[in-house]
Every structure is written in structure tokens, then in C-alpha cells.
């Protein structure tokens, strides 16, 4: 099969064909680093990760860029409220975004450009638009893009530019425009901008870049004039991505993006996430409450990215159980008995179709719900076959193990769970010592002490499994 992606520009599923195969250039709109991103943001960021992983799994050479917006109205306002320079406010949030991404198993982008490091290029970019008659300077020194000068404006969002004129609301700082629809490329500096260190020199006077401009300049600087894929949340279609197209194609005269992908909003307990409703959740809160990164990852990937996803705590608990099932299956494969003369158990005949079904699901516009179904069919059928067989041929065991590992290279669930549960050498020694004490207590028929040890280990997220071969233990959650 061929990967097909839903292109917002054409409103249809299209076979994916990069401009210069096998190279693929992808840009994702990253967070505005004035606060911690919420779980709705991370649903989108995990879509980025899924796309990144699947393209590489499929053999493409991917350059993935995700920006960090560290200068805009919100970052300046937040820095002003704290009375600190812009960078002092934004850097901890930028660092936290990258750290939380690592915790959730999000592959690092090849470049995480900071908007403040590209201002000189932004000034040059605006100058080109002014030279071409697509932008103009207002009396206060702000520069605006002229929508009337760009006839194809609205092709992504399907907005009618004439209808937009009647419906647009004009903010105070937008007075001085030639047309109320026009958007800011360069904003004349205000006292708050200067105080925060968010003002730069330009041919039009002191000022700062507009938000829409930032992504165009950073993406083109890092990936070239035509991107293969641009991803973001559905709320960015208009005006952000529409404005990116206008200013980018206005400068280059070339198509800006070949495939536009947009992730749907997340609901929490069936309602739109809002601080006023008390259902506004940031990933750090979930982690601090003891929820496992792999469980968060599983739930946020459980629905296809263009489908509605309802985040609930019950769903998060179910995701934790699903991840544990994967870990148990992996352990069973690794620790199961093998024999050179065992009867064939049919494991390759289970493994190959599962990987094929997984690929088919993701080829259909990254359908993660069907991909996860294919994974758990592999788990169910694999466990049943192992139950019947007892010992298996090494090559058959390897086929099952390789299929699971291959699928997890894309989903990253086992990888993230294993990383988050990893124990240091001192803790491992402590666990082994406690198991030894429990063995001694049981030998002395001190079952109260043995039960107390089991309970203490369980409180640390460690479960014991007694068998004829002895006691095994596994980490079901990491407790600091």
C-alpha cells in the first residue's frame, strides 16, 4: 500500500509523494512558551511524533522542524506581569516542553528554532513583501500584509475574503490599516515590548515580528521554499496557516506546502477544555500525580488524529492496563522456553499479518485506532499460540519478538514504559534483597512478614510473581 494523507488544502485523501524522495521536509507549529502546554497541545505534538516515526519506519529520510514561539503578545504580557525580561520568562517553559516531550517519547526535532533568533531574517522577509507591493507601512511604523493584493487568499480555510471584511473585529492596535482584513507582519514597538526586551530595529522603526510571520520565516529558513508537510492543530487553519501561505507564496512565488495536516481538538470528560470548567490539564500534573508517560501516550494516540478524542481519567487507567499487557507479552516472549526440536507453533504466520495490518492502518491517514487494534490482535493470537505450544523454535520466537519491536518503533509504548520504569542499580539490589528476606520469612513460616514485604514492594510499584521456578518481579509503575 501507499501512505495516504488527508490534505486540508484539497479536502481529500491523497497519496503521499514527497517533492524529493526519499527526503521529506516537515514543519510543525510548536508551543508558545509563556506557560506549560496542556494535554490538547500534546495530542497534536504526539501526532507529530507518530508522523515522524512512521515516515522513518517507512524508509524516508526526514527533516522535522518544530518551532518555539518565544515572542508574541502572550509571552510579552506574561513577562511583563512578572517584571522579568522576555527570555527569562520563556526559557524555563521551552526547556519544560522539551523535557516533557522526552518523557512522553517524542522524538526530538532536527531543529527547534526560537523565533527570537530569526528576527533579522524576518525583517528581510517583510522587506521583500513591501518591495513587491504585498505589504505596506502604517503611520505608527507597523507593517501589514495586503490581503487585497493576494487574489488566492482563503484557499486553505475556504474563507471568503469579502465576507471576512464585514465580519472582522478591529483591535485597538490595528487602526491605521488600509483594510481591516490585513494582518500584521511587523508590529511597532510599545513600551511593554521595550521593557521586556522584545523590540528590534527595522527600516520601519523599532518593533517586533507578527506571529504568523515567524513560522513562515523559520520553516523556509530550515526546510526550503516548499515544504512537503505542514502539521498543526485544527484551530490554526485560520488565520495562522492561511496567513503563512499568503506571505510565503508572496515572497517565493512557489507553492508553500504540499500537504497540510490538522489534528482535531481534544475534549476532557466530554467537554471542551477550559480553566473556567476546571478541566484544564497539563501533562506535568498527570506525571506528578503518578500517571505513567506510556499510559498518557497511549490514550492521546488512541483515536485517529482527525477524530474526536475524549480524554478521561478512566480512559487513562485503561491505557495503563493496555501498556502493561504489552509489557507482559514482551516479557513472555523474551523469557519463554525455546527448543531446537519444538513443533512449529505458527508464530511467523501470526507476526507477518499483524505487521501488514498495522502498516495498512497507518497508510490510511495514520489511523491509530486500527493500528492499535492490529497490535493487540498480535498480542492475543501470540499469547494463545504460546499457551498451546509451550516451548517454541528460536526462529519462531524471534519472528514474534521482531514484529512487536517493529510496531513499537512507531507507537513507542513499550519503549516509553520501559524507560520510565527503569530502576537504578541500588534500587534493583534493594528489591533483590527484599525478595531474599521474603524467601527466608516464608521458609520460617513467618507469613505475616512475607506479606508485609510483598505489600511494601507493591507500594513501590513492584509486583511479585511466585512460580515453581522461583519468584519473579516486575515494575508496574515507578514510585519515587
Extended strand count: 15
Q: Helical amount among residues, as a percent range? A: 40-55%
Please state the CA-atom Rg, rounded to the nearest Å. Answer: 27 Å
**CATH homolog superfamily of the largest domain:** HUPs
Number of helices in the DSSP assignment: 17
| CA distance, first residue to last residue | 45 Å
Which strand order spans the largest sheet, edge to edge or round the barrel?
4-3-9-10
By CATH, the topology of the largest domain is: Rossmann fold
CATH top level of the largest domain is: Alpha Beta
Tell me about the largest β-sheet. 4 strands, parallel
How would you explain this protein's 3D organization?
The protein is of the alpha/beta class. The chain folds into 3 domains: 4-268, HUPs (Rossmann fold), CATH 3.40.50.620; 309-421; 425-475, no CATH class. It is 49% helix and 14% strand. The protein is built from 17 helices and 15 strands. The chain has helices at residues 39-57, 73-82, 86-103, 119-131, 161-167, 191-196, 211-223, 237-252, 283-288, 293-300, 313-335, 347-363, 368-389, 394-411, 413-421, 425-443, 447-459; strands at residues 4-7, 12-15, 23-28, 61-66, 135-137, 143-145, 183-188, 207-209, 227-233, 257-263, 266-268, 271-272, 309-311, 462-467, 470-475. The protein has a 4-stranded parallel β-sheet with strand order 4-3-9-10. Strands 5-6-7-8 form a 4-stranded antiparallel β-sheet. Strand 5 and strand 6 form a beta hairpin. Helix 11 runs parallel beside helix 13. It is elongated and about 90 Å long. Mean pLDDT is 91; it is low at 169-174.
